[in-house]
Write a structure and sequence with these properties.
Shape: elongated
Radius of gyration: 18 Å
Number of domains: 1
CATH class: Alpha Beta
Strand content: 25-35%
Distance between the termini: 49 Å
Number of strands: 8
Order of helices and strands: EHEEHEHEEEEH
Largest sheet: 6 strands, mixed
Length: 131
């Protein structure tokens, strides 16, 4: 027997929206979401950050506060997929099995990956010119 009927990798907007859609269709489904982050960023709001309407911090919420109550939240990172076994292995070594898998892993924030981005953000913040 599987650990969860539906296992979703990624607790961002796509993963949560998928869980909500599936739950709306069948509230009896056992849905789990694997998400390592404790902070959820509302990425559509980032266009407004770039335009200077919002500050980056205004797009952040705790992951727990945006996670639907009807899903099992698993805090962890997927290290590998075993599709022939309907399972995933987490970085801590734990294996989880599923009936159906949804992969909605988003991106990993790395502001330092773009040379000068952090400095530009700090300059804008200090000058009052935007984010």
């Amino acid at each position: 027997m599987a650990d969860h009927q539906i296992l979703i990798v990624g607790g961002g907007a796509a993963g949560i929206a998928t869980a909500a859609s599936l739950h709306k269709r069948d509230a009896s489904l056992d849905i789990a979401i694997i998400e390592p982050s404790t902070t959820h960023y509302y990425q559509p709001g980032w266009t407004m950050v770039g335009a200077g309407v919002f500050k980056k911090e205004e797009t952040a919420r705790s992951t727990a506060s945006v996670m639907p109550s009807y899903v099992t939240q698993i805090r962890g990172t997927v290290a590998s997929f075993q599709p022939d076994e309907n399972s995933v292995r987490l970085e801590d070594g734990k294996a989880l099995t599923y009936g159906s898998l949804v992969v909605a892993a988003g991106l990993k924030l790395d502001w330092a990956a773009i040379e000068g981005l952090e400095e530009a953000y700090l300059w804008l913040s200090r000058s009052g010119g935007g984010a």
